[in-house]
């Protein structure tokens, strides 16, 4: 089971993400580092927890109001973490630019896709092994600008990501992010049964017990942030995960 820490970056600072309500996000207060400087937190994830990979959401890029590429480059240069980057990517140029900035994999998310063709173009440009599909879900519906995707069920979108060549899929329940309220597993069970590529998930995970339950369900990895910052999941808790 892969446990993947998350940093949400807004205007150069790591912020506390809650329910996808980005206008309310504030610089994070964490027990792991003295400030909300993303590189300090990334180093803590590596040195204290021994993580080998990390998910970074560039919230400025996702919202189309700027970018945090210099932050991503600094994290890449300062740590050994393999970075999975969501920077609102929906075209080949930005996909390649994100890889050049230090990403190991680039997230192509339903939230920022205008069409399925954009997904195809990004995968064609860099290869599917560099692309992670993110199925963004909020309040019972797929979060997307694409009229094509908006009409589909989560399983159908997951099947498209797999068919087009993405190496894995994230099912991200945005309304649960930062709440420590846990995930609903019904849709996850259906996704795991529908596709052969690894399924990751995130949003509201509170404890190692929940992670073990997701592992038993067949989930390949989980994205975790708040539970780490608040000490709900400690380094020792992760030792028995396989």
What's the number of domains?
1
Portion of residues in beta strands equals 15-25%
Q: Residue-averaged pLDDT, rounded?
A: 91
What's the alpha carbon Rg, rounded to whole Å?
16 Å
Largest sheet: 8 strands, parallel, barrel
CATH topology: TIM Barrel
Name the strands of the widest sheet in spatial order.
1-4-5-6-7-9-10-11
Instruction: Indicate the percent of residues in helices.
Output: 25-40%
In terms of quaternary structure, the protein is single chain
Question: Care to count the β-strands?
Answer: 11
Instruction: Report the principal-axis shape.
Output: globular
Helices and strands: which structural class?
A: alpha/beta
Number of helices: 10
Draw up the topology in text.
Elements: E1 2-10, E2 13-16, E3 26-27, H1 38-49, E4 53-58, H2 59-62, H3 69-78, E5 82-86, H4 92-100, E6 103-109, H5 116-126, E7 131-138, E8 141-142, H6 147-150, H7 154-164, E9 168-173, H8 186-194, E10 199-202, H9 208-217, E11 221-224, H10 226-229
Parallel strand pairs: 1-4, 1-11, 4-5, 5-6, 6-7, 7-9, 9-10, 10-11
Antiparallel strand pairs: 1-2, 2-3, 7-8
Helix pairs in contact: 1-3, 4-5, 7-8
